């Protein structure tokens, strides 16, 4: 006869097996907790459903690798990796995979600004011209940079602009007397034990310059970078292209590299008010009000959306190609979702319809699974949100896939002897000397950075790239190639051949 401690009702036993199975899939997650009692009964089926949705959406969007974490009350409910961090070498994505978090970096920067406000060292109504000569008058305030309302007449309209946001770096460095990287290390990475994160991909490459961070830190950052995911982009018809890594620098707007485990520590610190006071977050997590009294899409450091009566606080990261990220909080439910990926598709698809969390399929799946009462709720919805996230996000996903298919260009075969006539070096204005090489019936472009791209012919003298919106046209004069023209969206660059 089994002891009372081992006697389970069938439903309880099934839930226990489910939790054990999920723990095995997710690996050992610091600060994670195994659901107990009613929590197990509620959360285990939700986690099973959500992880299936996440992987299905990843497959539809052709994302090679994705890592996820869900938190409740500041504690990890579940974390897991899907697909591959390195597709060519079949390196699995895990909760420990390192990614560029792109614009999620902005939320860290916003917290640093708010900390100065709490300390009485900064006023959000202070002119940015006090810190940067790029601003010729006092009309643009700190609050306008945080809320992305600094263009034209400051405070009139919202327009997401990372370049304008970047001026907060000058504010922080002048106020603190420290480099921004050092502020990130001393405020977030060290106190929160974010040991796997890196303050910029280039920080480990110049030990003398960044000695202020400590040699032990630099050694760890270099070791962490070995786990950095490879970046990819989806061309169309199932073709996934290996991309180049993003620029190696660190800004107020982007540059932080992290894992979902470390981002979970950051999120938990936000929720337990280890970084900002409750009243400060309350101010930051309210839609910024325009000069005309209209609530806008952004708060002071975060996007803010009211969806069917529930406030959503969020941010996305997007490198254009290669990496994207999503950070969603439901403050009233003490729930958070963080997703990091090595493809732009995680965030990119949502822009097919608008710039709002309600058009992101992963976010919608999360809300439907963990806040199911929203499905039939009635209440105010922000002007930027769709009425039904299921309808809107699925439409955005389908439109994104179709858009990729529509942008595919058909390649033709060109005589290898003709390709050889295009080989050589070309002086591209303001971009340095680029080299063309030909071999085995293929033509390659090598940029000044050393990155190699294959060119595909759509006419004997006209070529395109699959992962760049460029068209390369070779121009002959007197029977020989004298230059190449590079059409880049609305810009055409004339690059003479270097003799």
Helices and strands in order, then pairings?
Elements: H1 10-26, H2 38-60, E1 65-72, E2 75-86, E3 91-92, E4 99-100, H3 105-118, H4 142-147, H5 162-165, H6 168-176, H7 180-189, E5 198-199, H8 215-224, E6 232-236, E7 239-242, E8 256-258, H9 260-271, H10 278-284, E9 303-307, E10 310-318, E11 324-330, E12 335-341, H11 345-348, H12 361-370, H13 389-406, H14 416-422, E13 424-428, E14 432-439, E15 442-446, E16 452-459, E17 462-464, E18 470-477, E19 480-488, E20 491-498
Antiparallel strand pairs: 1-2, 1-12, 2-3, 4-8, 5-8, 6-7, 9-10, 10-11, 11-12, 13-14, 13-20, 14-15, 15-16, 16-17, 17-18, 18-19, 19-20
Percent range for β-strand residues: 15-25%
* Low-pLDDT ranges: 1-38
State the helical fraction: 25-40%
Major beta sheet summary: 8 strands, antiparallel, barrel
Write up what this structure looks like.
With 499 residues, this protein is α+β, with helices and mostly antiparallel strands. It has two domains: 80-404, DD-peptidase/beta-lactamase superfamily (Beta-lactamase, 3-Layer(aba) Sandwich), CATH 3.40.710.10; 416-498, Lipocalin (Beta Barrel), CATH 2.40.128. Helix content is 30%, strand content 24%. The chain is built from 14 helices and 20 strands. The chain has helices at residues 10-26, 38-60, 105-118, 142-147, 162-165, 168-176, 180-189, 215-224, 260-271, 278-284, 345-348, 361-370, 389-406, 416-422; strands at 65-72, 75-86, 91-92, 99-100, 198-199, 232-236, 239-242, 256-258, 303-307, 310-318, 324-330, 335-341, 424-428, 432-439, 442-446, 452-459, 462-464, 470-477, 480-488, 491-498. An eight-stranded antiparallel beta barrel has the order 13-14-15-16-17-18-19-20. Strands 3-2-1-12-11-10-9 form a seven-stranded antiparallel sheet, sandwiched between helices. Strands 4-8-5 form a three-stranded antiparallel sheet. Strand 9 (303-307) and strand 10 form a beta hairpin. Helix 1 (10-26) crosses helix 2 (38-60) and helix 3 packs across helix 6 (168-176). The chain is globular and about 75 Å long. The relative contact order is 0.11.
């Amino acid at each position: 006869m089994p002891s009372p401690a081992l006697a389970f009702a069938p439903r309880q036993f099934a839930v226990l097996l489910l939790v054990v199975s999920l723990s095995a899939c997710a690996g050992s997650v610091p600060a994670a907790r195994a659901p107990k009692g009613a929590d197990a009964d509620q959360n285990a089926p939700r986690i099973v459903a959500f992880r299936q949705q996440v992987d299905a959406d990843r497959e539809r969007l052709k994302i090679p690798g994705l890592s996820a974490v869900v938190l409740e009350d500041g504690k990890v409910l579940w974390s897991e990796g899907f697909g591959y961090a390195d597709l060519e070498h079949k390196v699995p994505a895990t909760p420990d995979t390192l990614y560029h978090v792109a614009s999620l970096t902005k939320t860290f920067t916003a917290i640093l600004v708010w900390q100065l406000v709490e300390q009485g060292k900064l006023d959000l109504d202070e002119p940015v011209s006090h810190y940067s000569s790029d601003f010729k008058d006092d009309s643009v305030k700190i609050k306008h940079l945080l809320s992305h309302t600094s263009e034209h007449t400051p405070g009139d309209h919202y327009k997401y602009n990372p370049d304008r946001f970047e001026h907060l770096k000058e504010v922080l460095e002048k106020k603190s007397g420290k480099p921004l990287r050092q502020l990130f290390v001393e405020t977030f990475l060290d106190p929160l034990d974010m040991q796997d994160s890196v303050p910029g991909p280039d920080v480990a490459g110049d030990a003398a310059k960044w000695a202020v961070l400590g040699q032990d830190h630099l050694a760890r950052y270099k070791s962490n970078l070995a786990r950095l995911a490879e970046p990819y982009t989806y061309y169309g018809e199932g073709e996934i292209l290996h991309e180049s890594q993003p620029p190696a620098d660190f800004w107020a707007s982007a540059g932080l590299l992290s894992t979902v485990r470390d981002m979970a520590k950051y999120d938990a610190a936000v929720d337990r008010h280890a970084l900002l006071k409750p009243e400060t977050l309350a101010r930051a997590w309210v839609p910024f009000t325009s000069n005309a009294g209209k609530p806008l899409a952004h708060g002071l450091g975060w996007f803010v959306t009211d969806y069917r009566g529930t406030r959503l606080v969020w941010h996305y990261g997007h490198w254009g190609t290669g990496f994207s990220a999503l950070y969603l909080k439901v403050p009233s439910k003490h729930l958070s979702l963080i997703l990091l990926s090595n493809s732009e598709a995680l965030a990119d698809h949502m822009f097919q319809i608008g710039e709002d969390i309600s058009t992101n399929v992963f976010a919608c799946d999360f809300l439907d699974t963990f806040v199911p009462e929203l499905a039939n709720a009635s209440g105010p919805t922000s002007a930027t949100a769709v009425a039904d996230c299921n309808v809107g996000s699925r439409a955005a996903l389908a439109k994104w896939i179709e858009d990729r298919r529509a942008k595919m260009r058909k390649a033709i075969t060109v005589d290898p002897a003709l390709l050889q006539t295009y080989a050589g070096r070309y002086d591209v204005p303001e971009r340095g000397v680029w080299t063309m090489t030909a071999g085995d019936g293929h033509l390659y472009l090598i940029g000044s950075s050393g990155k190699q791209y294959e060119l595909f012919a759509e006419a004997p003298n006209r070529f395109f790239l699959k992962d760049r919106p460029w068209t390369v046209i070779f121009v002959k004069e007197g029977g020989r190639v004298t230059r190449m023209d590079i059409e880049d969206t609305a810009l055409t660059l004339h690059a003479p051949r270097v003799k």
